[in-house]
Specification:
The chain is an alpha+beta fold. Helices cover 20% and strands 25% of the residues. The structure holds zinc ion (ZN).
Length: 138
């Protein structure tokens, strides 16, 4: 019969799935704070917090000085699997050009900025929760 396609049976579907090569799911780029309190970046580098709850001006100064900026929109430290936003040098330049971030306090009190460093010259500005900064954090 033309024009009619038979639905695959469950067994056939199972065979197709089993015989297809396994393609690894893309690993989402995220960050997390591990059990030791280190901030681990997507490259696996561990950063220690060097300053907690810094001012927007201090965050701006760090970014202007070459720090990478990362935004945790949730605030749980990454355990829930929420994707963190890692901004590249070009994006950080646009954040710096837009001026200091705005930290909006909410009832949860999670919202803050902090500075992290890995002992190898890599500095991070971590923006948590309700931080607005340029066009990228909103
Ligand atoms: Zn979370």
């Amino acid at each position: 019969m033309r024009g009619r396609r038979r639905e695959a049976t469950f067994a056939e579907t199972l065979d197709a799935v089993r015989s297809s090569p396994r393609t690894p799911a893309p690993e989402p780029v995220r960050g997390r704070i591990d059990a030791s309190g280190h901030l681990v970046d997507p490259d696996g580098r561990e950063h220690r917090r060097t300053a907690h709850d810094v001012s927007p001006a201090a965050a701006l100064a760090a970014a202007a000085g070459g720090a990478r900026v990362v935004w945790d929109p949730c605030g749980c430290g990454g355990s829930c699997g929420t994707t963190w936003f890692w901004f590249d040098a070009e994006e950080v330049a646009s954040l710096v050009a837009s001026g200091a971030p705005r930290v909006r306090r909410r009832a949860t009190r999670l919202t803050h900025l902090s500075i992290w460093a890995d002992g190898d010259g890599h500095v991070l500005v971590l923006a948590v929760d309700d931080v607005r900064w340029g066009d990228l954090l909103a």
